[in-house]
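Predict the holo structure. Ligand: magnesium ion.
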Amino acid sequence: MKLIRPILLLLALAGPLFAGAGERDSVFDLLDLSQPGLERVADLHREGDDHAAAAALLEYYRTRRGVVCPDVRLDAVTVTPDERRWADEALEHRFFVHAGYQPSFFYGEDIDWEYWPVRDNELRWQLHRMKWWAPMGKVYRLTGDERYAAEWCAEYLDWMRKNPLTEYRDEEARGWNTAPNVYFAWRPLEVSDRLEFQIHQFLYFLPSEHFTPEFLLRFLENYHRHAEHITRHFSAAGNHLLFQAQRLVFAGVFFPELRDAARWRATGVEILNREIGKQVYDDGVQYELDPHYHLESINIFFKALRMMDANGYRDEFPAEYLRTVERMIEAHLNYSFPDYTVPMFSDAKLHDRTTTLPCYREWTEVFPDNAAIRRLATEGREGAAPDYRSRAFRTSGFYVLRNGWEEDATVMVLKAGPQAFWHCQPDNGTFELWHAGRNFFPDSGSFVYAGDKEVTAQRNWFRRTAVHNTLTLDDRNLDSTASHCLLWRTEGRDETVVVENPSYAGLTHRRAVFFVDRRFYVIVDEAWGDAEGDVALHYHLTECEPLERPDDCFVATRFEDGNNLALRVFGAERMERTEGWVSRSYRHREARPSYAFRTHKRAGEAVRTVTVLLPARDAGKSRIEAVLRGGFSSRGAAVRVKIDGRKYDLKYELN
Ligand code: MG
C-alpha cells in the first residue's frame, strides 16, 4: 500500500492529460493526425509516447505556416498605455473586466472567479472574457518578460479548474441573481469571445518556455470544449448569434487540425449567410436599431469575411454578402456626423474617430472602389463625399437631414422606426443635431445594461421616452414604437420628413421636420386622439449654461466660440426645467439642461406645437416667431416662421 499511494499521487499530480488512457486519448482524438505536417505527432502517439507527441505537436504549431489571424500582427505588435497597465495589474490579480468599473477590482491571491463586487450582470459575465490576457501577450512579445507568460498559463489553468463545464441547460440561464456560476462562465457570448481572443493569446505566448507541451494539450482540450459548447447553445437571434457564428468561423479556420474544425467553419458561415439576410434591413441597418450594435455587426460580418479570405476560403460567402456589408457601412457613414461620431441612440455609447477611423481603414481595403469609404479612411485625402446629402433609411427609420459632409455642416439624425429589440429604447421621434463640430442634442445614452434592482433602475432612467427629444403623454414611456414615414422630400429649397407613431392608446404623434434653407430646423408636432392628460415636448441640450426665457419658451446656448443654437417652442402652455443627464460611456454621466414644454390635452383635442432650432452665433439675440396656419388636419400642416424679420412659409400635404 505504501508503495502504491505515491504512484497514485504522482499520477494525479500529472493531471488528467497523462494520468489515464481515456483522457490522454481524448485530446489526441480531437486532432486529425492524418493531416500533412502532423506525421511525427501521429507516429509518436501511435507508439504510445504522448509526452513526445505533445512536444512534436507544439513544435508543429511553433513552425506552422499558412494559417493566419489577420487581427494579430506578430511583426508589428503595439501596446497602448492602457493595455500595458491591464497587463501589469493582472500580475497582481487586479483584472480589467469593464471600463465602467475602474479602478479594477482585486480578485484575490487565490483567484475568486465568482467575485461580484457590484451586481451589474456585465461585471460578472465579462470577467470571463479575460480582456487582460491578450494585452499580457502583447507585453510579453514586446518585452520577452516570462512573468507575463507564466502568469497567463497559471491563470488559464486556474480558470479551467475552477470553472468546469457542468450541466448547462439554456432554460436555466436566467434569473442572474441566483444563477449558478456555470451560467456566467459558460454563457455563450462570453465563450465566443474567448474563442476569438484565445487565438490571439495562443499566437503571442506560443514561443514561451511556459507554453509547454502539456499546456498545449490543456489549451486545445479547453478550446475544443468552447467551440462545441457554442454549437449546442446558440443564441436565438440578434448580435449574440452573429458574434457566436463569427467566432466559430475563427475557431474552424485557425485550428484546422481539430477534427471538428470544418464543421465549425461551415456552421458559422451558414449562420452568417442566413442572418445577414434576416438581421439587416433592405436599407442596410441592423435590426436592433442601435448604432453601436450596427457597427459591431458590420465588423462581425467583415471579420469573418477577412478571416476566411486570408486563409483561402473567400468563396464561401456569396457576392450578396459583400454587397450587404457595403450597404451597412454606407448606412453608418450616412448617419455619422463629420467628426466620425454617431448618434448614441438605444444602447450606443459615444464612438469617435479613435474607434471608427481604424474601421474605415480596414473597410477600404475590401471596398477600394467606394469613394465615400476611402474619403473617411484617409481623413479626406483621397476619395470623395457622396454626391447626395440627406438620405432616408425608411425601413429602419433613420432620417438624415444634412447640408454637407465637412466639419462646418449641419446634420440632424431623426430616429423613428419599427419595434426593435432589447437594446432599442422607446424613443421614436427623437433626434441628435450636430452643427459645425458641436452636438447640441446628444442622446441621453444608456449608462448601464442590467443587474440587480438598483442597477436596472439606473438603466431604466436612461431608457425613458421623456429623456429623449420627443413627445410624451403624462411623461410615460411609449406604449407603441412603430413609426412610419408619411413623407420624405429633399428636392427644392427646404427638405421635409414627416413621421408618425401610434404612441399611446388614444394618442397619435405626428412629427414634421423642415430643414429650412438647409440651414435651420422647424418641427411641427401634433398629438391627437381620445387621450386626456399632460402632453410634453422634451428637449435635452448638451452640457452648458444656457440663457432661459421661460415665458417665451426660449432657450439659447452661449458658448464662447460662437457656435450656438436657439430653441423656441410655440403652442405649449409652459416651459419647465427637468432632470437631465447624458451618458457617453458606461457608468459615466454628466448633468445637462433639459426642458419639458407642457400642454394639457383634453380628450378629442389635438395639441399642436412648433419648435424652431436655429444655429446662430449670438443665439440669445435671435428673434424667432412662428404661427401655425389653419386648424388641425390629418392631411397636412402649414406654418409661417419669421427669423430676424425674414419670413418662411412652410407646409406639407399628404395625398
Ligand atoms: Mg436614448
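Residues 345, 425, 427, 443-444, 468 surround magnesium ion (CB under 6 Å). The mean pLDDT is 94.
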